[in-house]
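Task 17 of the worksheet. Students: predict the tertiary structure of the chain below and write it out as structure tokens. Keep your answer in the requested format; marks are given for formatting as well as content.
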Amino acid sequence: MVIGAEDEVSGSGPDEDEDEDGIVLESPLSVQVGDLTVTLELPESAAIRKQVADLTARNWILAQMAALGFCWARPRRPRASFSACRYDLTAYGSAVYDEMITRGYPAIDVDLAMAKAWLLIMQTTITKKEVDAAEASFRG
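Model answer:
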């Protein structure tokens, strides 16, 4: 199933380029946060995407919070900045979430946007096909 900015859900089954059991999000992606339609875009930095993926192993909720901050393209980008948080992903994720709640956005909308931003990033780190290929190379 492909979820993108044009339509909330398209397709009835897996595409050739996606995992059999996966959901593929396309960038840019629109999500509703309160009365605001937000555009999420994949961060250009591979290092940022890798850091979010690594943080997932330690604290997946903070990883999702940080992903939202990095992916939120427009409108009303979070004022929280990665540099002001001393490049600490956990502090940045917390600052982004606190700001969204302080703005008065419903927590359920923020949580859904976080999850979609996180998935947008995670699907670029490693795919099931890559895992299968690596496992096959070890088997001989």
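Marker's comment: The beta strands are 2-3, 24-25, 29-33, 36-40, 72-74. The two ends are 33 Å apart (CA to CA).
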